[in-house]
Amino acid sequence: MALSASQPAAGVTVLAVSGEVDMVSAPALRDALVNGLADGGTFVIDMKGVTFLGSAGLAVLVEAARLAPQHSAALKVVATARAVTRPLEATGLGEVFSVHESVDAAVSA
After folding, report:
1. Which secondary structure element, helix H or strand E, spans residue 2, and what is its range?
2. What CATH number is associated with residue 22?
3. Which of 82, 74, 81 is nearest to 102 (CA)?
4. Suppose 21 and one of 6, 17, 57, 58 were both cysteines; which one would form an S-S bond, judging by CB atoms 3.0 to 4.6 Å apart?
5. Which helix (H) or strand (E) holds 72?
6. How many other C-beta atoms can be found within 10 angstroms of the C-beta atom of residue 55?
C-alpha cells in the first residue's frame, strides 16, 4: 500500500491510497487518517488506486468515520473500483460514508 497526502485548497486534505489495504497495511492507513483528521476541515480519502480492501481496512474506515465528528472534520471517500465499492456495499458501509467518483466531486459536495 502507498499513501500520499496533499492539501489542494485551504481546509481540504486529500489522502490518496493505492495498492492493497489489508491487515498488514491497515495500521499505516489508520495512523495517516488519525493524524489527518486531527486538523479538521474536509478530509477526502481517495481510494481510486486501491486494488484490495479487506476487513482490516474497512475497520479503519469505520474508526475514521467515528473520529471525524470529534475533530469537526467532514470525511469523504472517493471510490470507483469494484475492489472498494463492493466491500462498502456488501457491508452496508456505502450508506455510512459520503462516497464520490472523484476528488473534485467530493470536495464540492
Report:
1. strand 2-9
2. 3.30.750.24
3. 81
4. 57
5. none
6. 13
